[in-house]
Structure formats: C-alpha cells, structure tokens
Amino acid sequence: MIKEDIEKIISDGILAPSGENCQPWRFVVTDNKIEILNLPEADQSIYNFEQKGSYIAHGALIENISISAIKYGYIATVQVFPDPNQPNLVSTITLEQNTPFEDPLYPYLAKRCTNRKDYTGQKLSAEQKNELAKSAEQTGFGEFKIIDNNQDLKTLGQALAVNEKIIFENKELHDFFYNHILWDEEDQGKKGGFYIKTLEFLPKQLKGVKLFKSWSMLKILNKIIGVSKMIVKENTEKYAKSGSLGVIVARGSTPKDFVQAGRAVGRVWLTATKLGLAVHPCTGVLYFMENINGGNSKVFSTPHIQLIKSAYSDITRTFGVINKNIPMLMRIGFADEPSARSQRLKPEIEFKN
C-alpha cells in the first residue's frame, strides 16, 4: 500500500464539514488500517454536547474517505467505535486494493462548502428532492426530509432564530461566538473558527457585529432599542425565505448513531453541491436541546429553556419527526457563490510500521 495514496485519501477526508470548522480529528496509520481519533479538546462548546456535533463531522469525514478510497483503487471497510475501552477511537478503516473507480460525488469533495448568503427562495424540483432523499438512503444510516411550504418555513424560521436570540442575550453564548470569529484571513491556517467573510454579513450588519462584541454595550442596547429582537427578526426572515429547509433523521441518539447520521449528512451535502444547490447548517436549537435533555441546562435562563423547548417542538412537529433524533437541519436552495470558504488545517497523521 502506497503511503502517498493514504495521505491523499485522508486529505480528501478532512474536506468534510465540522462545527466552527474545529476539525476534531487525528489519524494513526498502520499498514492498510487507518484509525480515526476524536479530539474532544477541539470543541468543548454548548453546540457540541457530549461531542455529538463532532461525531456528525466524523461521519462526514468517513463518507469522504470511503468516496476517495474508491478513486485511488481501494475498498474501505469501516468499523465505528471498534474498541469500547477507547472512546476517542471513533473509527477504524481498513483499505483493500480494488479496481479504481470514481464515485460521481468525488469531484464535489473540494467544492462542498457552507453558504450563508441570502437564498433566492426558489423551490427545488421534484427530481432534486428525490435525488437528495436517495443519497441519504444509500448510506443506510439516515432519512432526509425537506420542507418547502411557505407557512411551514415561517414557523421554522421563528424556531431557528431562537439561536440568534440566545447568542445576543446570553453572555456565555455571546462570548463563545465572538471568541470563534477569525477577523483576519491568515488566521484560518492557524486554528478553527468562523472566518468573518464566511458569515456573509452585509456592511451595515458588520458594523453592528463589531459594536456588539462588547457585552456591556450589548446589554445596554438590548434594553434601549432591543438589539436581540432586531437580530431575531432579520434571521427569522432569512430562514423563512430559504426556499427549503431539510433535516437528517438519525436512527437513535448514541454516539454511533450520530457518526452514522454524519455519513448521511455528508452524502446529502455532496449531492446538493453536485446539483448546484447552496447549503447552510442551522443546528443551534437542536444542540441546545441536547444540552437540556442531557441535564446541562444551567447555562440557559428559565425563559430561554422554555423558548428552546418550544422551538424544538415546532421543528420536530413540522418535519413530522416522532421519537427520533434530528442531528442536522440545513437551509438548502439557490444562492450566489459564497464570499469566502473555510480553510483546512494540515491533518495530523502518525504512520506506524
């Protein structure tokens, strides 16, 4: 087995999305076996309760690796959490030589990105929706559901904007958001985070974002002019005018379920990219609810807890999800090209003889 092939396959793998672009992985390679380890310290945020957000990222990483392996003439056999005594060992992938073949999604590994621009509101065709649903089915690990009814989109827009309300009313969430903004492009190669241009703020919005970095100033402005309410109104409209909102429904809520659902997320997102569609994950309320269900609600005020529960209920009801988990919700539609893309750090790979 050629070392250069494995390096190429892993480099394709890390093009997968991750929360706050934290890239929570490292790799240990022994002969034809790749061990993928989670780095819990990469993301300890409220948005990553019990590392579930990172597990989604690992699932997308595994899907990328599986697609890339075929390109270079290997079949990837995947084991998820193969050793219960090593909880950070997310997966072991064994590569066996095979006839090279290019998966139709391979060219889109490098093209896939988050697009936070305003969407046109155009609806997806029946063929596009069907292809997205089939892509999730192909993994065998998740179900894709889509909503494009305007009234339902308004309901979902209000629910999703609870994320922004809490960011601008809760000091811990506010500080997390600002601590993860990368204001200079060169910082992208040093650490994960949101490069400011990828957040797609309009010039007038960017002025406000810079002003609201001061928590004391934000508190005053919330009292005087209701800044958080203004931000919620803007984001409610943005979400509602997306054209479509989609979810991946997982089999369960275990770490393994989240990794496997991540494979469905990865494949759906790549398929959307192939179809020329823009995608923007909107998972704030979902992972706030993970915290509440897991007994980690102390960071939220009582009114905010009630808002989160109500918003989550609206999401599950609107999508018709009963007694199942939603690890991913995304805007999906038509938009101009993003202003910038998040960069990837060089992967940490240890080769053992």
Structure report:
This protein has 353 residues and is α+β, with helices and mostly antiparallel strands. The chain has two domains: 3-110 and 343-352, NADH Oxidase (3-Layer(aba) Sandwich), CATH 3.40.109; 126-333, NADH Oxidase, CATH 3.40.109. The protein has helices spanning 3-13, 52-71, 126-139, 150-160, 162-167, 171-179, 203-211, 215-225, 227-240, 255-274, 284-293, 302-319, and strands at residues 25-30, 33-38, 74-80, 89-97, 142-147, 181-182, 194-195, 245-250, 278-281, 325-333, 349-352. The chain has a five-stranded mixed beta sheet, covered by helices on one side. It has a four-stranded antiparallel beta sheet with strand order 5-8-10-9, sandwiched between helices. It has a two-stranded parallel sheet with strand order 6-7. Strand 3 and strand 4 form a beta hairpin. The longest helix has 20 residues, at 52-71. The model has no long low-confidence stretch (mean pLDDT 96).
Indicate the CATH architecture of the largest domain: 3-Layer(aba) Sandwich
Query: CATH topology of the largest domain, which one?
Result: NADH Oxidase
Tell me the fraction of residues in β-strands, as a range: 15-25%
- The total number of structural domains is 2
**pLDDT < 50 runs, ≥5 residues:** none
How many DSSP-defined strands?
A: 11
Given helix and strand content, the structural type is alpha+beta
Strand numbers in spatial order across the main sheet: 3-4-2-1-11
Largest β sheet strand count, sense and barrel closure:
5 strands, mixed
Series of secondary-structure elements, N-terminal to C-terminal: HEEHEEHEHHHEEHHHEHEHHEE
| Terminal residue distance | 12 Å
